[in-house]
Amino acid sequence: MSNPIAELIELLTQENISNQDINQAISSMPPDDVALALESIPVSQRRFVWDSIKQTNRLDILVEMRGESRLLLLKELNDLEIAELFSDVDAEDLLEIADSLPDPMIDIALKKMDAKQREYYQQGVTYEEDEAGRWVDHELIVAAQTIRVSEAMRLFRRVSAPYSDTLYLVNRTGRWVGCVHLRSILNAQPHEPVSGFMEEEYPFIDAQTDVVKAADLLEKSEVSALPVLDSNQLLVGRFHAGHALEARRLEQEAVQMSNTGLDEDSDLFSPVRRSAASRGFWLGINLLTAFMASAFIGLFEATLEQVVALAVLMPIVASMGGIAGSQTLTLIVRGLALGQITRANFSSLLKKELQVGGLNGIVWSLCIGAAVLFWFQSPMLGFTIAMAIVINILMAALSGVIIPVVLDKLKIDPALSGSVILTTVTDIAGYIAFLGLGTLLLL
């Protein structure tokens, strides 16, 4: 299969290409592929490609771009071009890109909107970026709970938006009272009230719910969309399967990027100084943790001078602790995400992980101790590293449980920062255990 993005990049390397050539190359590409293609070429070439894109397609492509890439492109446009770009923007698109736009651009977009879209936007910005109320879709079928089946069927026929298989019923004050699925009224009599087909205890999403948890709720509900309600039970909008997939994708991308200290909105061709500054910060954090570990090693300088074998074997102790801790950390982070970990089962879980760590520590300490004995012909050195392995794996199990739970309580994402803290703890614990025991037993 051909890769249209690669073909576009290859096309841009050729001489004497025209706007028509570019437009022909991207005409069959969906907006997200065009956005990815723009992010895959140097900033200096993006304006040329952008000028080749039809005006009617530009906004959709802009929404699909990453935050930094979007802002870099908008800086190349003049006020007239920006006003034309936002001439048909709706509240949902503007909410999606608002965090990467300067206030003057948002003001331009708001002036182009009708009153209803401005109302939707003002409602959406009251919620945080990761709350369901910010993500809602307003293309839902809403009706009074008193309507009849014939009226409901007319409403269904008028709507062509995806995931429109549900009727959302409200009372006189606008509060949501329930939902009716299309399948429930297909064979009903036209004069029957739809309230008789309303599903009892229909699930809903609080507008302040984290968007990833909202995706979980939608998945468990086994429907294509759920109503989103504010604190007064007023219908804010709906959260549908498309939102859930997007939330999952962004979460996964954020974790992958943050594990290396990068932002998921980072541009592949962002300015050198900006890239160096963002990456340099995390290099500095890593350097501090490395200095901490080195400082603890320095406390045992005399021991290392006399028993050189300890320096050779240190990476084994740190590595075993790091792997064991990462396994526990991953398990706990998943448990927190699924709501499986509570005060009631925390102590039992901690006990279980310590037992697992103890068992693995004993088994592998015997293996490593025997290998060291064979290698260095020193029973005491083998015993020393075996004891250090047991201690460090137990510390890794303890840290792997406690660190993510504490970070979660502090409203810090344990999936993003837990591994950095865990690695530092297991390294330092391993070095102290190994070198401390070496000082006591080998000198």
Automatic annotation (TrEMBL):
- In terms of domain of life, where is this protein from? Bacteria
Give the way it sits in the membrane: Multi-pass membrane protein
Every CBS domain range: 198-255
What subcellular locations does the record give? Membrane
Name the Gene3D superfamilies on file: 1.20.50.50, CBS-domain, SLC41 divalent cation transporters, integral membrane domain
Give the family from UniProt.
Answer: Belongs to the SLC41A transporter family.
Q: What is the protein name stated in its UniProt record?
A: Magnesium transporter
Q: Whose protein is this, by species?
A: Marinomonas ostreistagni
UniProt lineage? Bacteria, Pseudomonadati, Pseudomonadota, Gammaproteobacteria, Oceanospirillales
